[in-house]
Fold this protein.
Amino acid sequence: MARPENDTFLRALLRQPTDYTPTWLMRQAGRYLPEYCETRRRAGSFLQLCKSPTLACEVTLQPLARYNLDAAILFSDILTVPDAMGLGLYFAEGEGPKFERPLREEWEIRALQAPDPNVHLRYVMDAVAEIRRALNNTVPLIGFSGSPFTLACYMVEGGGSEDYRTVKTMLYDRPDLLHRILDVTATAVTDYLNAQIDSGAQAAMIFDTWGGMLPAWAYREFSLAYMERIVASLKKVHDGERVPSIVFTKGGGQWLESIAAIGVDAVGLDWTTDLGTARQRVGDRVALQGNLDPVALFASPEGIAREARRVLDSFGKHTAKSGHVFNLGHGISQFAHPDSVTALVDTVRQYSRGFHEGTSA
């Protein structure tokens, strides 16, 4: 199948010349949009929304109907993988995701098995296929998963945590058990992302939300090593087209060179890392994605435009081998105003063209 009509996002990830800097936003289909809230109400619950391919397709497309975005991202949740492992995912009102059966006993950890994504996560693959049909080759579709370490945090803690004391205690006292969880989960994530690619995802992203809370040595051993294994096993070509990969470790700017060395096509940055400095550190080895502070969307339209220009100025003039995808440094807030996103996306599309002159193929 041919590349999408607008392949700017894919070209940027592969460090090919583009006419402007492409934009998509983490959590672009979410609670800040009134149409999403209406669909979520009809679904009955967040989990039912995730498990309905038709409704997941509906909310995936909603931000593209509003904004001049360059990619769609599958609407799902990173915790569908441990749910398919039998941990019993549910969402407590006002408390976020929780697991009925967190991994605490050694026998449970030893018995853990990677699920077959085409069986236990069939609804995700059906959603990917339905979204691709609905997009009709206009813009690319991003598939994603949580990183093994981030998933393990939830699997051991049983939900979110302020200090992730339980999983980090396991790391220090019983690293063998944590490695067992990570080993099985890395297999599960690899199979899951490859199944998404087979179903139509045109780029694959790994969200390492909690890797940044680790000491440097532990990040390399318990997070980065497993993401490297996944990236090495991802399908790089599907239907004759390259499928680029992105790794995003929130709080991982100090390890940028190490992340760039694992074979990934692009590295996502949170808002605490200077984009221009990051570009100097990695050169043209990878593309970069990011990294506006999500809270900047609460500024006036003029303030939003100024901060978007600041990010683009920081990255600077493009060369024939550079790549930048504009994004937030983390997910968009549910309290952001939809019109603020318009101000951001329009500014990036217009202002970034000046940085790409002379680089187009």
Residues 8-355 form a domain with the TIM Barrel fold (CATH 3.20.20.210). The longest helix spans residues 175-199. The chain has one domain: 8-355. The longest strand covers residues 141-146.
